[in-house]
Amino acid sequence: MNKLALLFAYMRTLRLRNRFRTREELAAWQGRKVRAFLLKVRSQSRYYRSRYDGLAVEDWEQWPVMSKTEFMDGFDDLNTVGISKNEAYELAVKAEMTRDFSSKIGAVTVGLSSGTSGHRGIFLVSDRERAAWAGTIMAKVLPDPIYKKQRIAFFLRANSNLYETVQSRLLQFHYLDLLDPIEQHIARLQELQPTVLVAPPSMLRLLAEAMNRGELRLQPKKVISIAEVLEPLDEQYIRHAFQSVIHQVYQCTEGFLASTCTHGTLHINEDVLVIQPEYIDEERRRFLPIITDFSRASQPVIRYRLNDILTFREEPCPCGSLFKAIETIEGRMDDLFYGIHREDGQQRIPVFPDFIRRAILLSSEAVMEYRVSQLSPMELEVAVKLESGNNAAAEARVRQELTDVFRLHGCLPPDVHFTTYRLDAGPTKLRRIKREYGTAGAEDAPSG
Ligand SMILES: [Zn+2]
């Protein structure tokens, strides 16, 4: 492992934190970084050379946007390390089957993303980028300076070389496989007493429940939620059990997008990438992020549209950082619900996840957990866990609130039926709000 690259990235991240006095200064610096990056990539990647042929680098902010499908289809020519998709896929699948994640192709780590929308993504990271990534994430995430000892408990769906990078004398990483039973995790964590606990919110929730039952006693310095949307309801529950701010790392195959500061505000990592908003509602509040990551050249991400629905935080953060912050990660575009226009009976009208979320929370204070699936534009399946067991009155209110949301959008009210609530923390990502039909072509779904 390239310790020097790691340390360099760590120092760089700390230095950049206080380097800019205004947004303009930051934007100018980013512009210079991006232009230099694009010139380099265009000379190294056959795909980008032909895609952006003849376009002026100064106008990069208007260059054509890339979809996930294009990104994966162009894989072989797009990456700059000469790895084919077949080769990468074979290796990643084998690693997943044998649960041996140490294999690489040359100096490149291959990983498989947990695709929620059907097709899976493959990512490539060079050794140097891996070390730089580790340094950046340590500067942003660790509760103390790098020379302080930490025991980090890290829940993973699949172990990856990416995380092995950070193993050192001072940082002990302990991986917990999400596939293992919860009793085993509780016993192991109890003994380990991690200083940093990193897990998807569905797992944090189960651990919080075990804490509340007195079966688990932990006092980590930092609790970090990853890989799934941290719903306000879960955030509250987990925060209460751990008596601390719940931090977030917002990362995907396309980059290390954002992480929380000491105040728990989710700042965009504008020191490694640029996020341009593509607004998708009339109020210009919700957007899909267009990502340009100027810190990673092995598999360059340029003007890439991610399918997550985000909103910006309006007020500045008390931490003083100039980096923009994300108020909410509403969910994935694939989980956008659609209603049928009340008058013409045909037109599909988008209903954003946040409306569904709020409808559930407004309906009853007794709702502890929930799941809402849209089976068709006229059919919702709901599962709620209530404080006091089954409760017909609460269910009726949930039904009312949900049908009201559709009415307010000018849509026909859907059928709402109830099913038993279950939480499976495991290999499948938890999505409390989920659309179960017509995911194909969701990328092109109409907006606003
Ligand atoms: Zn902040």
UniProtKB/TrEMBL annotation:
Task: Fetch the SUPFAM superfamilies from UniProt.
Answer: Acetyl-CoA synthetase-like
For this protein, the record's InterPro entries field holds: ANL_N_sf, CapK_Type1_Caps_Biosynth, CHP02304_F390_synth-rel
What protein does this entry describe? Adenylate cyclase
Q: Which organism is it from?
A: Paenibacillus oenotherae
Q: What is the lineage of its organism?
A: Bacteria, Bacillati, Bacillota, Bacilli, Bacillales
